[in-house]
Write a structure and sequence with these properties.
Number of helices: 3
Number of domains: 2
Oligomer: single chain
Largest sheet: 8 strands, antiparallel
Length: about 280
């Protein structure tokens, strides 16, 4: 598997903003059927700025998308919005913002064949991975989502990368991206065993191949802010953009031979420890 840009913590993966608290309360009054999830793309554009800069805001290409900013370094991108409640969302937070910029995110509907069919974008680096249908469905016929990022001021350009005038990626600084969705995918696409749900990133527009796993270890949850439980979510961390696409995928089960080797190793370790203990008492 390719290298990642993980930050060694899961706490940063889930922020508790007032916006999420208000929306969680509203969910008691609004039920969003999975059949209502939009199959068309929406583009949501949100601004970012320094803490002392003007308050930032978001715009959407249609009523199926929405966005909310908080603290000028954090934006919540909402998609498949029905009755004011999103079907899935992406929260993007920068550790340090150096100056004003904006990022547009489009939720492109895709299915498994886009990733593993002929010329699929999982094939090279993530063989046998399955896209998780966060928009509902089974993934084979649709329901998976590719989040495509662009410069909010120039949608034909890639998103602004780290610089002295945009955002900082020195030291431990970077960005955290958190995905939450209402579709109950955990039954058909479980995280167990071993953290199988992953946040993948593609960095090249020329081939669209997914080449980075940016998952924050331990960040997967089945009780997020959208629909309480089940309501899966997961976070990722990065220190660069270039051209960027994100998607949520499930890694294949460990091969039986690997499990057997691990089991054999554990049995051997326990045997050696037992033998050592017996000799010490003889």
């Amino acid at each position: 598997m390719m290298s990642n840009e993980n930050r060694p913590t899961s706490a940063a993966a889930r922020s508790s903003t007032a916006v999420k608290i208000v929306r969680a309360a509203a969910l008691a009054l609004v039920l969003v059927p999975l059949s209502a999830i939009a199959a068309e793309s929406s583009t949501v554009t949100c601004g970012f700025d320094t803490p002392s800069g003007p308050a930032t805001s978001c715009t959407s290409s249609d009523l199926s998308g929405a966005g909310i900013t908080s603290g000028n370094n954090d934006a919540l991108y909402e998609f498949g919005v029905t009755g004011g409640v999103p079907s899935y969302e992406l929260e993007l937070t920068f550790d340090k913002v150096n100056g004003p910029f904006s990022i547009a995110i489009t939720d492109a509907p895709v299915n498994q064949s886009n990733f593993t069919g002929e010329g699929g974008t999982f094939n090279s680096n993530f063989p046998n991975y399955r896209c998780v249908p966060i928009a509902g469905g089974n993934g084979l016929d649709g329901g998976c989502v590719q989040f495509e990022l662009a410069d909010g001021a120039n949608p034909a350009a890639p998103p602004p990368d780290a610089s002295s005038t945009t955002w900082d990626n020195t030291g431990t600084n970077g960005y955290t991206v958190v995905f939450d969705w209402a579709a109950p995918t955990d039954g058909a696409f479980p995280d167990a065993p071993g953290g199988r749900i992953r946040v993948l990133r593609a960095t090249s527009e020329s081939d669209g191949i997914y080449n980075l796993d940016i998952t924050i270890p331990g960040s997967y949850t089945t009780c997020g802010p959208l629909d309480n439980c089940p309501d899966p979510g997961i976070g990722g961390f990065g220190k660069s953009f270039s051209t960027t696409d994100f998607t949520i995928a499930q890694a294949p089960l460990p091969e039986p031979t690997s499990i057997a080797l691990v089991t054999t190793g554990l049995v051997g370790l326990l045997y050696r420890r037992r033998s050592r203990k017996d000799r010490s008492h003889s």
